[in-house]
Write a structure and sequence with these properties.
Elements: H1 4-7, E1 8-11, H2 15-19, E2 25-30, H3 36-47, E3 51-59, E4 63-66, E5 69-72, E6 76-83
Amino acid sequence: MTTAYDIIIKPVITETSMDETSNKKYTFKVAKKANKTQIKNAIEEIFGVTVEKVNVMNLQGKVKRMGRNVGRTPDTKKAIITLTPDSKEIEFFEGM
């Protein structure tokens, strides 16, 4: 059985993701096997907010070289969470 903390791995802190926090949109790196319903329930459980919409992106790993050896970085999944207008904001992103 997976917990909410197994689904939400870490927040994504970039310039574009921080600009969207004013529109109540937050970006998180999530587990690859998680679906939108599991992500929504995990965010609501961890932060105590109301989620309106979840957008999910599957990101393929980049090809990296070390001399003659070629490898790939791991594939990841990213979720953009939109909160309802009457929901409180996520406190983790407020001070940034």
